[in-house]
Amino acid sequence: MTTVLIVDDDDLMRAGLRAVLSSDDSITVVGEAADGHEAVALAREFAPQVVLMDVRMPHRDGIAATAELSEAVPAARVLMLTTFEDDDYVFGALAAGASGFMLKRTRPERLIEAVHTIAAGESLLSPSVTRTVINRMAAAVPPDPAVARRLRTLTARERDVLELVARGLSNAEIAASLFVEESTVKTHMKRLLGKLGLRDRVQAVIVAYESGLLRPGTARPASSTGRGRPSRGTGEA
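Structure tokens predicted for Response regulator transcription factor:
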């Protein structure tokens, strides 16, 4: 059973989200919060596996709440819900510890799938905004020598995988690019996440830019195909 906490300042939105999630017998909504303060308090009380977090809320927004949740209830994974594709808060939310985000207008079945993806320990970026997030990340994060030193623990192939992840490629695309099996890519991902002390794919992308492994403007454009097909933005291990 997957437990979920819904956080949104709109009463109708919370009711709608609860109705969608309740249609799946394997999901239980353990609580609802109308702002960031209440979200943190309820997360401490119920320890949900997934928190559906609105970005813009009064009193304490989703970014501040996510940052506090990451410290107070590290097992809870946050899926940000945003209204606009160009939401200026998206990168801040990911940097604060969110495991992914989706647009509020997504189809009900996709939201349910996203909850299961996040609960399984994977990350997820909405297909329509994945490239935008990567480009903003590249422009917003200056190289950090301390972070760059952490990459020395990686093998050459693990660095290759990290770079391709940061360019926005899916596991299948990375496998095609490196001429290996997709299972091999997943193994490399698991090892590099462990070596760098990272939780998921989203954090790996952030580290790639913080370290200077990739520089602004080097993320693969959405129209680029390389080897394999463009990423669909689904959750990846």
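Residues 2-121 form a domain with the Rossmann fold fold (CATH 3.40.50.2300).
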